[in-house]
Amino acid sequence: MPGNTIGHLFRLTSFGESHGAAIGGMVDGCPAGLELDLEAVQRELDRRRPGSTPLGTSRNEADRVEFLSGVFEIPSRLEAGMTARNDKRVTLGTPIAFLIRNADAKPSDYDALKDVYRPGHADKTWEDKFGLRDHRGGGRSSARTTAASVVAGAIARQLLATEGVHVHASVLSVGEVSATRTTDVRSLERVWQNAVRCADPDAVPRMTELIERVRAEGDSVGGVVSCFVRGLPVGLGEPVFDKLDADLAKAMLSINAVKGFQIGMGFHASTMRGSEHNKATQGGVLGGISSGEDITFDVAFKPPSTIAKSQLTTDRSGNAVTLEAKGRHDPCVVPRAVPIVEAMTCLVLADHLLRQRSARV
Fold first, then answer.
1. pTM strictly above 0.85
2. Residue-range domains of the chain with CATH
């Protein structure tokens, strides 16, 4: 099935289903000689994993990543006083294959959905396209598959760091509760200290209360994740079909539950005069090419479709059915979406960084 690969030079191909034996991926095009901190890769995966926040799903996966190829022990040419560490490896320039085993899958939770289409999900469209579907948690269309993106994005992040590029995301809003936007790196680094993953300490308790309230009501709520990139060099992005902002938009819209993307002034730009907008932030991209300024963009997530409230739907025979969904689901996806937004951003930027190296003599 096509559509499982992202990138041109730095490429991720992912595989696996929500309640299958495992998920994983292969990163191709990562240059040789990159010192890879495997502990840092695992740390980013831990931030996304089910059970990582009390505001999310009760599914609890260890999500320990296993590297199968493409990395090797750190070279012996260490600087004076340095010693090799077990969590350090070096990339070989060959495909980096990795595996994440599903340990807490409960496919029986979805037996009642075998012949029923969940409202707001890909159940019906998937079956219309392929003629069959994996009803166990959505199969390949499940957000569970984003774990592979986070691993690959963590590798891409370490490649970007060698060029001084840093990516930070945080929750900007949950439902009607909004945070104060910030580009202060120290504040953004502290988002992992709270369950909402928000950089505004005043908004955290209000967001927490809202998520807990809608979960108690058997409902769900959406929100917005904001992303900030610092240190990106000038010139990344192609001028026509592979514009940097266009590729970022595609990457973000490939994340489950994403319904909107805006960069710079976004939709607000449509209300401005040219004389006003020319003086405003362009989001770090001009004509599809990075300007050297900080990149800022927002990603809007819909409320999760699987809720405990009764919903009217249909079965495979077209009969009306009342569905009260079972299983373990997030009442709000945005806290666990923060590392996914960062990962997809890193994948796009790493790919364009490598492409730019071949753009001129």
1. yes
2. 5-356 (3.60.150.10)
